[in-house]
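YM 10:42: HotDog ACOT-type domain-containing protein sequence, as discussed on the call
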Amino acid sequence: MGNPSSRLHFLIKRCPNFYRKPHFLLGLAKDEKPIFNTAFCDQNVSRSPFSQTKQFSVGANDTFSDPIPVVATARSPLDSSPTIDAGSSIRKPISLWPGMYHSPVTNALWEARSSIFERFSDATIDPTPQNDLIAKTPSKSRTSVLYKFSSDYVLREQYRNPWNEIRMGKLLEDLDALAGTISFKHCSSNDGTTRPLILVTASVDKMLLKKPIRVDTDLKIEGAVTWVGRSSMEIQLEVMQSSPEVSSTSESLALTANFTFVARDSKTGKSAPINQISPKTETEKLLWEEAEERNKMRKVKRGERKKEIQGEEVNRLNELLAESRIFCDMPALADRDSILIKDTCLQNSLICQPQQRNIHGRIFGGFLMRRAFELAYATAYAFAGSAPCFVEVDHVDFLKPVDVGNFLRLKSCVLYTELENLSKPLINVEVVAHVMRPELRSSEVSNNFYFTFTVQQDSLKNGARVRNVVPGTEEEARRVIERMDAENS
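YM 10:58: structure's back
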């Protein structure tokens, strides 16, 4: 295998479809429409995310007519295929590699839009900003992804947690990846001559789990741009899972998520105007109105955060802090069914690696969301004493970008609990991500995440119960009040 010519012969023999589309190696011809060809290798050779047989057109103004199929990125131990040559990976420009290191869905989405990126990476002339904006319908950006859990054993294993349930953290990561693809499709110009924008996840609104998601039944996630401002847009995603006992579409809906993305010029870094949206159907118009109302509410809340807490809220602060003073001054007399926030904390640290970056060299928002969810899950587990059940993502703020090489510390705590319904207590977990720069002796918050969990009813037998959580400082009490008000608004 050391001889280049024999190696080439080996690759052509093992993966004949790999060289069938020369634009993957040499760039597109001027009159050739970019095609996403997923049939790189024969099915009996590889179970890679590229071993599908469908083709998807990914022109800037095209839509995916069929759901993007997702398959496992690893091979089943039951397979007895020949050994795969590790050097036969796809030869792409290094700027197109990042998405290949993520989940099967991120891999599939990355491939589906990679030929658009290749046009820019192959360009010899620096493209200009997009000056002539166009209006697109939501259908132009609509994209769906299909997980064939029922038939793909290895894919199912990649998404299964220790309790034979779905790994919600991986699903959240996939939702962010899909939202990114949808935003890119909406912002792309028709002719592909203008330079691409930097599209950043700004926030994620509340995601409420409407029904449990199974890991042995096929799953589909689908979404489109529903609202556009000057340089921001909202993408609504739906997670759907049908079963023999479920017939209607509404009963198949398991989760709805609203992502807000903002656009930056890739050269100047300043906010950039984006294509407008032109809803056509009654459903599209209704979704636009709902998104417009959410955008107005976000602006109102941002203004309210700047106001000082006063009046009745001062009394609420004092009430929250009254019990914590007992913990601090007379701990032997403190309520045994309560615990200080600081005693529920967990944290972990990591160095952000190149494999976790997006096309712009920044860390994937979905990767951060998955790591935050998994830490929140562990925090709720250690607090409740039994495996928690996911209820909702309350809110996610992406305040500052996270770069490759950053030293990231995630800190979590149980912020407060809701015990009105003792059969279904709610555990509200906060995760704050800090970017630390030891050489500069600096640390700043990059992300805030809020998750809600509950526990199985059988874990509350024999007098077991979820404890009340008490803020120990005024700053903690303010955070509790802010989250409670956000939940009730």
